[in-house]
Amino acid sequence: MVAVAARTSRVTGRRFRSVTLGVLGLFGFAVALEVAPRIGVVPIDFAPPTSQILVALGEQFGESSFWTALLQTLRTWAIGLAIAMVAGIVIGVLLGSLPIVRAATATTIEFLRPIPSVALIPLVIVLYGPTVKSTLVLVVYAAFWQMLIQVVHGVADVDPVARDTALAFRLSPWARVRYVVWPTALPYVITGFRLAASVALILTITGELVIGSPGIGKEIDNAQQSNAVRTVYALIVVTGILGVLANLLTRLVERKVLSWHPSTRAEEVTVA
Amino acid sequence: MLEVKNLHKVYDGHGRRVTAVGDLTFSVPEGQFACVVGPSGCGKTTLLRVMAGLLPATSGEVRVQDTPVTAPPPGLAVVFQEYGRSLFPWLRVRENVELPLKAQGMARAERRELATEALAAVGLADAHSAYPWQLSGGMQQRVAIARAIAYQPRVLLMDEPFAAVDAQTRADLEDLVRSVWKQFGVTLLFVTHDIDEAVYLGQRVIVLSASPTTVAQDLTIDLPAERDQLTTRADPRFTELRGQVYARIQKVKAPASEGAPA
Ligand SMILES: Nc1ncnc2c1ncn2[C@@H]1O[C@H](COP(=O)(O)OP(=O)(O)OP(=O)(O)O)[C@@H](O)[C@H]1O
Ligand SMILES: [Mg+2]
Fold this sequence. Notes:
The complex is a heterodimer.
Chain A: H1 2-38, H2 50-61, H3 64-97, H4 99-112, H5 121-128, H6 132-156, H7 160-168, H8 173-210, H9 216-225, H10 229-257, H11 262-265
Chain B: E1 2-13, E2 16-28, E3 33-37, H1 44-51, E4 59-64, E5 67-68, E6 76-79, H2 83-86, H3 93-103, H4 108-121, H5 137-150, E7 155-159, H6 167-184, E8 187-191, H7 195-201, E9 204-208, E10 215-220, H8 229-234, H9 236-257
Parallel strand pairs in B: 3-8, 3-9, 6-7, 7-8
Antiparallel strand pairs in B: 1-2, 1-4, 4-5, 9-10
Bound molecules: adenosine-5'-triphosphate and magnesium ion.
């Protein structure tokens, strides 16, 4: 019990220290960006100091157009991510469970996967114009591969003894996927989700910025057109915050659904 | 009822051809407790995997309950040596035991009852809601045994199930397996490399030769049905049988170690 308590407090202690250091680092970064333009290291017209960016950010929070744009971005991001997740999981489990199909598709996948999503921009503009649909295609394309690769690896990670056990007890193919393959692949799925979420965010903003579908990206473009440099930076900060929030959310889900997994077990020891 | 007829198994792949089982023929009548011993690498695990329908034979035939095995047969349960990997770490003990029943579509109340009964039979009545990795090795192996019992098999196969537990736990588990066999009346094929264990447990010991594997000796163990770690192992008849099996194994091992310095 003593050892457990010590471990728990060491874990929280370590986490506390890393959070403190992280906040300090961020603060230092903000100070550097405040000072650099003021002493003329960078031109103040193109790189406004932190304080001015924060003021511009506050102004944005007061505008309803900002909130509309934010919701549109979140919506595109979430829909794209959801489609990529479902497609990645279904196709990944199929590929992982059927070696013949995997062998037949491996080359095609190796060919398609490195194509940068942005290379599809001209194509989607011709197809759908400056719409959310266009941006969604980019988002799904980029996020899908992240998901697929992880799921295929996860499915391949099923322990041979666990597989034999399931076969010997005559579990149906569906029961094997549900009770053996899926739990094994889950840690990979979550990693895939984390990677896919950040890629999807990047492409949501890129799509809005380049194609002009509604959202934060388009607001950035508008602000730039009207020379509102501080607003541009304020909106960039917003995209950064979105990325951080997505990451935190993933970790929360991870700790909840993977409580049995060796990577999260240590913190659950208090139960025993 | 288990029948093995002229079983032959060759592993062929990755540029290596290994004859794992030469020519194996024996049968285990309904309700018998048979132990299989043999030198390491003689194909015991291979034999078990073919019987369980997890591996196709190269030639020959295996029958379980008078049906040729082509896929995992119904009414047959396996307890694997690697208990840690055979239990699912994402399921609690009770869920692990219930899973094969749930997959069969058995009603909740019924499978709960079977699981409770099986866990009580292996002395784990209070571990239902633990995860397997919270248990000791011996307890984990007992969960695997409980899962096999709850499945209500007619035939139970065990592959060196106690190779990785300490001597005391091992003795306890041996007595557990004997009581389970008596209580549930299954046909039991128990693979081990431990001669003492084989003689102590079985009604019969099948000694396999080194590769190419054949049955080197088929010995009836005529010890009393009531067995006990102390008195049975001190029985002169036990020592005699044990000596016979030991001598036989030394003999079948000899060709493999020919020329090697003693
Ligand atoms: N998947 C495989 N592919 C190729 N060869 C294999 C495979 N599995 C086992 N073998 C070979 O078959 C032979 C018998 O192996 P097996 O595991 O059945 O022996 P065993 O009697 O169970 O040994 P042990 O007592 O050490 O567990 C060995 O020579 C082994 O190298
Ligand atoms: Mg073996």
